[in-house]
Design brief:
Layout (H helix, E strand, L loop, with lengths): L1 H6 L2 H19 L20 H24 L3 H4 L20 H25 L11 H12 L13 H10 L1 H11 L6 H26 L13 H16 L38 H8 L19 H7 L3
Helix pairs in contact: 3-5, 3-8, 5-9, 6-10, 7-9, 8-9, 10-11
Length: 318
Amino acid sequence: MAILLTSSPLIHIMFMVLISVTNFISFSAPYPTCQPSYPPHAIPVYKEDVDALQFALNLEFLEAEYFSWGALGYGLDHIAPQLVMGGPPPIGAQKVQLDFLTKNIITEFAYQEVGHVRALIRTVGGFPRPQLDLSPNNFAKLFDSAFGYKLTPPFDPYRDSLSYMLGCYVIPYMGLVGYVGANPLINGYEKKLLLAGLLGVESGQDAVIRMYLYERAEEIVYPYNHTVAEFTTRISELRNRLAMCGIKDEGIIVPPQLGAENRTESNVLSADFDSLSYRRTPGEILRVVYSTGSEHFPGGFYPHGANGRIAKEFLKKP
């Protein structure tokens, strides 16, 4: 029977029908959709969204310069001078003799931040890079405030890889909680897309930094008699004090009442009671990055204040 079927013209007819059906399916099937379909009434950009996202540019400039100088020995003026828009170069930024792993991580972070600055300027417009103070002296003051006394010798984030990563612990998290705080205020779909993309990478950076430090939690930070975990706890407590809005910042080791479902002391990711990211307002963020506890008085990483309408409005109301 099989021989008869094979030699029969029926098999040829069946084969031709199969080819025809396949071609019909191929030509009639639509191309796959790769972009979301927005409602007809959706607006890509709301005017009131611009200030909220422009504010974030202050933090992205800070991260871009700290990461690029630490890993590469130069910053935006060398990598993408058009993005600084005439703003002054950072004060005191330095290259670090990072180990292989740390250098790879921070180099990637540096170029990611260049992309963030570019995306923000392209989408919501920009402003000149504010004056940034990335000097060892500024970090030393910050860590002295965190511990409540002068560390001897003064803390220097450019000393070695671990010190540099402790300096990293200070910075990207503020961008993360800032984006979470801005999210409910954004309306335009183009801005929401930008914010989500930025938040995703900022969260990833913070997670990498926290995991790096968590793996070394019990290590003593040379030349101080304090562990890595103690350093993170002190910095987080300082940021909570400066922001003055309760606990929105936690170290890598916490008491169980602050752990996930009140059952963990490990705290690789900082989150609230429901394990959701904390959020901060621009005012809270400025109180922290100014190191003054006031959004009206600049200092810290921004000795002359941050740029953009939101930050400038705060400076007008002491």
